[in-house]
Structure formats: C-alpha cells, structure tokens
Amino acid sequence: LIASVLPAEVKTAFGGYLPLTPREYGGVLPKTVYGSRRGVETLLRRLVLGEGLYSNIEQITGLVTGILSDPADTSRVSKVSVRSQSGSVVDMVATLVVDCTGPSQLGLKWLKTAGYGIPTVPGDASLTLDTLRIQYDQKLKVVTLRFKVSTSLGNRLPIPGGFRNIATVYNCLADWTLDSQNIYAQRVDGDFVQVLCCNWDGPKPPQTLDGAIGFARSMRINRPIPDWFFQFLDMLHEVEDTMTFSYVRVPPSSYVQYHKAANLPKNWIAIGDSVMKINPADGQGCAKATIGAATLNTLLRSIALKPQEMRHDRSDPFDDFSRKFFQVQKDKIESLW
Questions:
Q1: What is the residue-wise DSSP string for 57-99?
Q2: pLDDT surpasses 90 at 303
C-alpha cells in the first residue's frame, strides 16, 4: 500500500467549472497525502505505532463496553470498561476519554448508561442525550470501479501532468439544480485507479466501465467534461480484466450536537464521525476528523503550557474541558453540516 504526498490539486469541477488556484500560494498548492482509506490508515498506524518513536503510546486489542463515573466526583469519568480478547472485562483508569467509535456513535449509549446527559439545574435549556442527534438521508448510492494500471498504460494515459505526477485525475460534481450525479477518478495506492459514480435519489449507478462512460456523458452540467477524460476512461479497457467493483448505499448523515448537551463529563470528548457523519460526496470527512484532532491538540497544549505554579496546584486541569472542546470544534465543523 502506497500513499502519495503531492500538491493539493484536487481537480474537482463544480458543474463543469474548475476552481482557480489561490494566488497566495504562488501557483503551487501545499502538499497533502493521497491514497485509499486503507492505505492512509495503514500509513498513520505505522507512523504512530510502528516506528518506535512514541514509546508512551500503546495499542490494546479489545472492545469498549462503557464508561464509569468517579464516585468521588460524578462530573468526570474515572474508568473505561474494556472487554479483552479472552472475554474478560477490565476497568481501566482514565484521565481523558475520546470517543472515536465512528459512525456507530456509541458514546451516546455509554453516557446514558453512566447517568450523564440529564439536566441537573432547574430551567436548564440544554438538550438531553435523546434529542442531541439530528440527521437527514441524502439517499446516496456509490459504485467504485478499481483498475490496476500497467506501466505501459500509465505512460500513455492522456492526463494533464502525467499519470505518475498526479493523484486526482478528474472529479466532476453536479450542479444540484440541474443534475444529481457525480463522477470521480483518482490514482490511489501506487498504480491503482478508481472511478466512482454516485447519485442521490436515483437508480443504482453502473457497475461496468462502459456504463461509467455512459454515466459521465449523461451528466447535465454547465461546462462539458474535457475530451481527454473520456479518452482516459476508454483506455482503461486495456486493463478491464483487472477491474473490481463495490457498491454502497450510504447511510443517513447525522450530527450529535454535544455542544448543546446537558451534564456531560468534563473529561470526555468525541471526534470525527462520532460527532458528525457528513455527506461523503463532498470528500470532507478526513478534514473534519483532522479539525477535531487539531482542536484537541490546541486545548491540551494550553494545559501543558500553563505557568509552572498553575500546573502544580490542586485544581483539575480538565475542569470545563469537554464544554470548551465541543464549542471550539462546533465553530470549526458546523459549516460542513
């Protein structure tokens, strides 16, 4: 598995129009990581766990089954219950708990079981756990065609900039006032190309290369898709014998508004899809999770950088931590919803 580090030229046309490169970068956008989800996750795990750089990080195999409040201070979580591979449940002491359970959003269940999420002050306008989650169904269907591109074919593909020097081949997102179809093409994990056809509230996208070509030609957009892209798709017939495909009916998007919640433990937060599952057609999921991680980093550093005398007093460094985190994260990601 190979992830590429290249300038962030996403080459995404909106209704057929490609955006201009921002002038402040001098015509060359900052670099970013490209790859399939599996490739990027593997890279991150190797960097964090496999290089021996972070001896204070340990990965434990098990299933979190719940959280336990501190008997001496119910405003904080004291332990996390983990079921090990052997089936036994161990209660692990916790200083800070981060819900990274993704689309399952299990934090809501843990909090409710532990007795959190219920207003404790008369007249509190905060929301209970049962009313935090809002959702909508974008009725999105996605078919992904994946091809192994040979060296010979890669050298001949009519992609501006060359096959070896790009990650995004071309994406075209529909003008929703005209159409409900998107098409994406990317180079991922070395010499693999994936072509994604998706629509919302429409029939199942095609599962063949010829079907994908017809799908692209049928899109109603303001500016035509460039001819070289159709030449690129047609040339993939040379490696059609390597093609695999997958079909996904994307579940509804949801947003757990933890910033409005009543009585959350002050040392418990949630990041990524655990808070907000957004429409994947816009490709903003990893950016959203990164924003959450950056927010956590900022708040943790604000604790670590306190003056020496403040760091060694008896006050709780995580006092009000959860409320601050969810408010800052909300301000940064709510526009994605």
A1: -----EEEEEEEEETTEEEEEEEEEEEETTS-EEEEE-S-EEE
A2: no
